[in-house]
C-alpha cells in the first residue's frame, strides 16, 4: 500500500513540476502576436511576431520574410528589432530605411553573388549580422559594414566567399565574434583584421588558405581556428601580435615545419592542435614561448617520429590529444623507445579497454554495445545511460522518502488518538 501511495504522489509531483516548467518556457520563448502593418514578398505576406532571440536573449519584435521582394512596396515597421530574410532576391537599400532599431539581421538563401553596398546604411543599432548559407555569394563590397560601431557578431559561414578586401571590416570597433568558416577564401591580405581591436573569436576553418602571413594586431583575440585549410607555410611573425591568444587550432593542414619563434609571443596559449600535418620534426625551442600550454593535439605519426624530449620537457602539459581521445599527461609514459598510455576512465564504460595505435579499443561486456560500451543492448540509442541511472535513482529516493514520511505521519496520528 505504501509503495502504491508513494508512486501516486511521485507521479503527481512530477506531472505538476513538468506543467510549471513548461509554463515558464512557454511564457519566455513562444512567439507572441505583434499587431503592425506587416510587409509582404511577391509570394506571400511576411510574418510579424514578438519572438525569442538567442543572441539578445529576450523577446524581440521580429519580421520574417521568404521569397523575392518588391523593393518599392516593402515597408518595414520602424520598431522592428530583428529581421530575417530567406530565399530572397531584389534587395535594395531603400527597403531598410525604417531599420534604425534593428539589432539582428539574418539573410539566408540569397539568390545572387553579391549584396548591395549600402544595404546596412540605416542600421546604426545593429549588433548581430548573418549572411550564412548563401552559397552563391562570392564577394562583399569594400567597406560593406560602414561605421557600424555597435556590431558585436558577424556570421558569414558556408558561402562561396572567395576574397576579403583590406577594408571589409574597417571601423568595427565593437566586434567580438567573426565566423568566416566553410568558405572559399584564399590567402589573407595583410591588415584585413587590423581594425578589430575587440575581436576575441575568429573562425577561418575549412577555407582555401595556403599560407599564413601576419594575422595582424588583435590584442583581444583569444581563440583562432585555422584547421582544415591548405596551409603549407607559416610566417615566423604571423602570430607575433596575438598576445591574448589562448586557443589555436592548426590541425588538418599541410604544414611541414613550424618555424623557430612562431609561438614565442603566445605566452597565454593553453590549447594548441597541430595534428594531421606532415610535420616530421620539431626543434627543442619550438614550444618555448607558450609556457602555459596545458593541451596539445598531435597525430600518431607525429608522436612516433618527433624527438620525445620535446614533449617530455613541456612542464605545463596536462593533456595530450590524439585524434578525438584526450589522455591525461600524468598517465603517459615514454619507455623502451615507445609511448605507453593508460586508457581514459570514460573510454569503455561497461567494457574492457586496451590501447592500439594510440587509440583505445573496447571489448564490451555482455548486454552493452557502442564505441564506449555505454549503450545497453535493446535500449533506445537516443537515451544515454546516465539519464537512465539518474532517473532510477531519483525515483527510488522519492519513493523511500515518501514511504517513511507517510509512515511517520500515521504513527504520530495514531499516538494522538491513543492519548485522547
UniProtKB/TrEMBL annotation:
Q: Which residues cross the membrane?
A: 383-406
Give me any GO biological process, just one.
monoatomic ion transmembrane transport
- Residues covered by the EGF-like domain: 362-373
Entry annotated with the keyword Transmembrane helix? yes
Provide the topology term for how it sits in the membrane: Single-pass membrane protein
Compartments where found = Cell membrane
One Pfam assignment: LRR_8
The residues forming the signal peptide are: 1-22
* One GO cellular component term noted in the UniProt record for this chain: plasma membrane
Major subcellular site: membrane
Keyword Ion transport annotated = yes
Mind telling me which InterPro entries this protein's record contains? Answer: EGF, KCNMA1_auxiliary, Leu-rich_rpt, Leu-rich_rpt_typical-subtyp, LRR_dom_sf
Q: Which domain of life is it from?
A: Eukaryota
Keyword annotations: Cell membrane, Disulfide bond, Ion channel, Ion transport, Leucine-rich repeat, Membrane, Repeat, Signal, Transmembrane, Transmembrane helix, Transport
The identity of this protein, by name, is Leucine-rich repeat-containing G-protein coupled receptor 4-like
Tell me the organism: Branchiostoma belcheri
Amino acid at each position: 500500500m505504501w509503495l502504491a501511495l508513494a508512486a501516486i504522489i511521485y507521479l503527481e509531483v512530477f506531472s505538476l513540476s513538468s506543467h510549471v516548467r513548461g509554463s515558464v518556457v512557454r511564457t519566455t520563448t513562444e512567439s507572441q502576436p505583434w499587431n503592425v502593418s506587416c510587409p509582404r514578398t511577391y509570394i506571400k505576406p511576411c510574418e510579424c511576431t514578438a519572438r525569442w532571440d538567442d543572441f539578445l536573449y529576450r523577446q524581440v519584435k521580429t519580421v520574417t520574410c521568404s521569397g523575392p521582394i518588391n523593393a518599392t512596396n516593402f515597408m518595414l515597421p520602424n520598431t522592428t528589432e530583428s529581421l530575417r530574410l530567406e530565399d530572397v532576391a531584389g534587395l535594395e537599400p531603400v527597403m531598410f530605411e525604417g531599420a534604425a532599431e534593428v539589432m539582428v539581421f539574418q539573410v539566408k538563401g540569397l539568390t545572387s553573388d553579391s549584396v548591395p553596398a549600402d544595404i546596412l546604411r540605416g542600421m546604426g543599432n545593429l549588433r548581430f549580422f548573418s549572411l550564412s548559407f548563401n552559397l552563391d555569394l562570392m564577394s562583399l563590397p569594400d567597406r560593406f559594414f560602414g561605421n557600424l560601431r555597435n556590431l558585436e557578431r558577424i556570421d558569414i559561414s558556408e558561402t562561396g566567399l572567395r576574397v576579403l578586401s583590406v577594408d571589409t571590416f574597417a571601423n568595427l570597433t565593437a566586434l567580438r565574434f567573426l565566423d568566416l568558416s566553410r568558405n572559399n577564401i584564399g590567402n589573407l591580405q595583410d591588415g584585413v583584421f587590423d581594425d578589430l581591436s575587440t575581436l576575441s573569436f575568429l573562425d577561418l576553418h575549412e577555407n582555401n588558405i595556403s599560407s599564413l602571413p601576419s594575422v595582424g594586431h588583435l590584442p583581444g583575440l583569444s581563440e583562432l581556428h585555422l584547421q582544415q585549410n591548405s596551409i603549407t607555410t607559416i610566417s615566423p611573425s604571423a602570430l607575433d601580435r596575438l598576445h591574448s591568444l589562448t586557443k589555436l587550432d592548426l590541425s588538418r593542414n599541410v604544414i611541414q615545419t613550424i618555424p623557430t619563434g612562431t609561438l614565442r609571443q603566445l605566452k597565454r596559449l593553453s590549447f594548441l592542435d597541430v595534428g594531421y600535418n606532415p610535420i616530421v620534426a620539431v626543434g627543442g625551442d619550438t614550444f618555448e614561448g607558450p609556457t602555459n600550454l596545458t593541451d596539445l593535439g598531435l597525430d600518431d605519426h607525429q608522436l612516433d617520429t618527433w624527438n620525445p624530449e620535446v614533449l617530455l620537457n613541456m612542464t605545463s602539459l596536462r593533456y595530450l590529444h590524439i585524434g578525438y581521445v584526450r589522455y591525461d599527461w600524468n598517465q603517459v609514459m615514454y619507455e623502451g623507445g615507445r609511448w605507453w598510455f593508460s586508457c581514459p576512465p570514460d573510454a569503455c564504460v561497461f567494457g574492457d579497454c586496451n590501447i592500439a595505435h594510440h587509440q583505445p579499443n573496447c571489448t564490451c561486456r555482455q548486454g552493452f554495445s557502442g564505441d564506449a560500451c555505454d549503450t545497453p543492448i535493446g535500449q533506445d540509442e537516443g537515451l544515454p545511460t546516465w539519464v537512465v541511472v539518474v532517473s532510477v535513482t531519483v525515483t527510488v529516493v522519492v519513493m523511500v522518502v515518501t514511504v517513511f514520511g507517510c509512515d511517520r505521519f500515521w504513527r504520530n496520528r495514531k499516538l494522538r488518538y491513543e492519548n485522547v
